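Task card 7
Instruction: Convert sequence to structure tokens.
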Amino acid sequence: MSIPEFAETSGSPASAPAAHSQTLSRGIRVLEILAESDEPMSILQLAAALDVHRSIAYRILRTLEDHGLVVRDPAGLVRLGPRLAALARGVSRDLQAAALPVLTRIAHELGMTAFVAVLDQGEVVTLVSIESRQPHATVVQRPGTRHPLHVGAPGIAIQSALNAAQWAALGLTETRRSEAGEVATVGYASSHDEVIPGLSSIAVPLPVPGDSPAAIAVVYISSLHSPADIGAALTEAARTIVAELS
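Output:
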């Protein structure tokens, strides 16, 4: 039986722009939900996450599927599609190109997952990441992973690089972390048990001219390296990336 497609909104033509905006917002939210999920999701799960009728979720998914942004497996479960990866390669292309070899070296030398995160309004988003080849448990940090700016070492490092006007422009209800003021003295930001229970992270600001405030960071379960040594390695990595972009 085909799924009936009920009208998402009703009203005069004057209300059409708001409806289009709502549909676009929901489509973007579907991509965010799938990016945050560790497993493919059913249409019912996505409809519940969006708080919409199944028919609306189905119509949104069909549009995203037509553009290759999502795909469905034989069981009907939905995951992000290959077209999204192609689009993502164009985001901060120069920064990604400059960061990749540096992240690869850091990941293998320290035995940790290394990544670059950027500020997106009030959230920190992973732009690019590299996992270590060393034969022990590694942490997966997928590009597109996001978390609030006020938690985690990358968030603290980015906060430390924002001036008062930039911070105020974000319009956040949270106050700036006190640790952000210590980054210039200590040389790095650190966190444990903040974004994901049991994991530690160390980060330093990555000042990329003309781009979003960013940080270069590592995330790990345990390490024989001291936080100071990791911070020093990340600071040198940040200098290398900025020099490559200059």
